[in-house]
Amino acid sequence: MTALFALATSLLWGLADFGGGLLTRRTPALTVVVVSQCIAAVVLGVVVTATGAWSELDGRLWFAVAAGAVGPVAMLSFYKALALGPMGVVSPLGALGVAVPVGVGLVVGEQPGLLQFAGVAVAVVGVVLAGGPRGAPVQRQAVVLTLLAAFGFGAVMALIAEASTTVTGLFLALFVQRVTNITVGGTALYVSVRRGGRALPEEGGRAVVLAALPALAFVGLADVAANGTYSIAAQHGPVTVAAVLASLYPVVTALGARVVLGERLRAVQAAGAGLALLGTVLLATG
């Protein structure tokens, strides 16, 4: 069960990242985050009501609130990085977020293994190489945004795993997380517009967003489902196994970028992206 749900997590996260990255190339990233999470919140609200999950209200939901506050920052940073591209570099770097749950384990007294130390070294080298040689088509801003997103994703993984112990409780935790996502993201969008930013695409405006609603729904629901399957995987088996398999989602995103967008990376960038992914696996398995 752990392997099945963790692999489902990697597939869902990979598809959500790819879809979100494509959408932000025409639509402001904050709008993509807010609209996709609104759709997800509506669906989850129906599920919570239908399953009677309101009875699971307890103090653990503060973990979901914290995850919801961090999530929009991570998603916004990641979508902006994907829009700057290339996805084949950005996505593997985003998987470094698994270092956060590992770090939490160290704080509570777990002893680091040799593989974890190796994972840190390999990941750092991968980050440097993924930036490419001088003149390579990877903006430094994309790397910085991706690392910020990775930290946020790792924090969300650690927090949402603590937010519930039952399936119905998980539904409620995911709903609370999405409501917080919308509150934080919506506030940021409002402030951005007040300062002269755009909520709608420059070309096409509202019509573009309306036409993209099915894709936005898919991104939001895939992200929710991935959080849910990861939580189930972590609760029903070794967290290390769940983390390793779930961290393979960049492969899905990178394959999508290669097949759909025809992205081609320089050899050193491909090597860096691969090392970053390898470092992620070593960190999780150490």
How far the N terminus sits from the C terminus, by CA atoms, comes to: 22 Å
What order do the SSEs take from the amino end to the carboxyl end, as H and E?
HHHHHHHHHHHHH
Structural class: mainly alpha
How many individual β-strands? 0
How confident overall, as mean pLDDT? 82
* Main β sheet profile: none
Percent strand: under 5%
Uncertain segments are: none
Query: Mind telling me the C-alpha Rg?
Result: 18 Å
Helix content: over 70%
Shape: globular
Number of helices: 13
Describe it.
With 286 residues, the protein is mostly helical. The chain contains 13 helices and no strands. Helix 3 (61-84) packs across helix 8 and helix 4 (87-94) runs parallel beside helix 7. The chain starts with a helix and ends with a helix.
What is the gist of this entry?
The chain is mostly helical and 286 residues long.
Write the layout of secondary structure elements.
Layout: H1 2-23, H2 29-51, H3 61-84, H4 87-94, H5 99-107, H6 114-130, H7 140-160, H8 167-194, H9 206-211, H10 213-235, H11 239-246, H12 249-261, H13 267-285
Features:
286 residues, mainly alpha, 13 helices
